[in-house]
Task: structure prediction
Amino acid sequence: MTLRSGDYMAQGLYQHVRATWRRPKDALPHMYRQERMAQWRREPVNCKIDRPTRIDAARRMGYKAKQGVVMIRTRVRRGGLRKGKIHMKRKPSKAGISKITMAKNTQRIAEERVARHFPNLEVLNSYWVGQDGKHKYFEVIMIDTHHPAIINDKQLGVFCSANGHKAHKGRVYRGKTSAGKRGRGLHNKGKGAEKLRPSLKANLNRGK
Result:
């Protein structure tokens, strides 16, 4: 079908949801977001939820509404690395306490903490859902790799060792999720990404 000047394609539900979450401060009322953050702060750190808050992002990251797929909302404290004071002779600026950023981003830390909290589940992917002055909130998609519905699934079955696939065991700790690959630089390709593959360590960390 050829579109002429003045014509437009009708957008589906997922396009509208995605446009809403592209600029949530403009699209969602302030009081609504404030009440949501207040409610999430009262919940446990790792809270199991019935359905994803961002259905477009969840489906994009591999979510399916079926048995064996679990949604967890978690929070991680914002900001740089917290380090204790070193009581040794040095300039205050060289003490190495403030202005230190971790090599892993907050989303990867959130995924790993959830994986440790639910050792029988495997992290598939995660996405951002909000932040306040103190925390960032992420929703993590977990799968039960021993559930028959997951083992027999065409897409999710590749993460199950029952099908002979063992490369994804503990995948979150080895940077195999989407956030992990982004942190390892594997979302880049072509010019400027020559030192990223097969890994940063193989290239003596010269690629980052």
Notes: The longest helix spans residues 30-42.
